[in-house]
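Re: your question about B3 domain-containing protein

S., sorry for the slow reply, the queue was backed up all week. Below is exactly what I fed in.
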Amino acid sequence: MDTDQGKNIVLLGDKPLAAEFHRQSFFKVLLCDANFEQVRIPSGFLLHAQVTEEPFGVRTLTGPSGHKWKVKLSIEGKNIYIKDGWQRFYRENSLIDYDFLVFRQCGNFNFDVQIFDKRGVEKTNR
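Result:
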């Protein structure tokens, strides 16, 4: 990961991550506990994310209740994953198969997370 000198744009490989911040978001549908250990941030999101520092290290997920969880972002190849701390977020929000999560960036890979059940109803009692 490199920084393009003088432009405040972080590069992932040879592709720039956008410098404009407009609360970019992405979603994940949970299937068969495949997302229990980690969640991959989609590469398409990375091209539009506002970044002012390297996108790894400790970040914050804010759940529907307003409670905050510390997670660690990890880079593997050209992918970025939400890892350490994710399992706790998963358990404490009682996530199950087919839950639909919307991750809305609130700066430097910190996210507000909305959780919907398989019927499309937002889970708010956390």
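Residues 1-9 have pLDDT under 50 and may be disordered. Helices lie at 43-46, 86-92.

Happy to talk it through on Thursday.
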